[in-house]
Write a structure and sequence with these properties.
- The protein has 125 residues and is an all-alpha fold.
- It contains 6 helices and no strands.
- Helix 1 packs across helix 6.
Length: 125
C-alpha cells in the first residue's frame, strides 16, 4: 500500500503541473480531451465518481481530479502488485536456487577424534 494518504502525496503538484499547466489549458482541445479521458473510466470509476471528476475539471479543481485519479490508479496498482508478489517470490526463489555460488573451493582435511595417532599431534600433511 501507500505510505502517505493521497491528499498529502508530494506528487500531486507535479501531476497537476504535468497535466493541467497553463500551457496545456491554453489549448482549446485540452478540456474536451481530459473530460473524454475521465469519461473512458466511467465503468471502472462508477458513473457518479466519473461525473464528479468531470465537474471538477470543468470547475478548475485540478488537484481534486488528480487525487481522485490517484486513488483509482493506486488501488489498481496495489491489486496488480498483490497478484504479482506471489509470482515474483516464486520466480526469485527459483532464480536463487539456480544461481551459481561464488567463492573458491577449499579442501578441508579432517582428523579423527580420539584413538589413532593420525588424529593427535598433526601427523604429516
Amino acid at each position: 500500500g501507500r505510505c502517505l494518504p493521497v491528499s498529502v502525496c508530494p506528487c500531486l503538484p507535479v501531476l497537476v503541473e504535468d497535466y493541467a499547466s497553463e500551457e496545456h489549458r491554453a489549448d482549446a482541445n485540452w478540456l474536451p480531451v481530459m473530460r473524454d479521458s475521465v469519461g473512458k473510466l466511467h465503468k471502472r470509476l462508477g458513473g457518479e465518481r466519473a461525473s464528479d471528476l468531470q465537474a471538477r475539471l470543468d470547475g478548475g479543481d485540478y488537484t481534486a481530479v488528480a487525487e481522485g485519479l490517484l486513488e483509482y490508479y493506486d488501488g489498481l496498482y496495489d491489486r496488480h502488485l498483490g497478484n504479482k508478489r506471489v509470482e515474483k517470490h516464486a520466480v526469485v526463489a527459483q532464480e536463487e536456487a539456480e544461481k551459481p555460488r561464488g567463492g573458491k573451493m577449499v579442501e578441508v582435511l579432517a582428523h579423527g577424534v580420539g584413538g589413532g595417532a593420525e588424529g593427535v599431534g598433526g601427523g604429516s600433511n
